[in-house]
Amino acid sequence: MDDEFCRERARAVRAIAEQADPLIKRRLLQLAHHYERRIRLSESNKKDREPDRKPPTEFQN
Known about the structure:
Order of helices and strands: HH
Strand content: under 5%
Structural class: mainly alpha
Helix content: over 70%
Distance between the termini: 51 Å
Largest sheet: none
């Protein structure tokens, strides 16, 4: 799943949770947290995969 899907799903689940009874609300908020956690993990994995970029060095004559 991509990050945008997870963001939209978390928003939708939170919106539904606002109208739910307390037990269902708690479960829906846990589900939204699950989606948000997947986004954070995905973002941290992307950062880890980026190559280290070194600033260009000037040529010395």
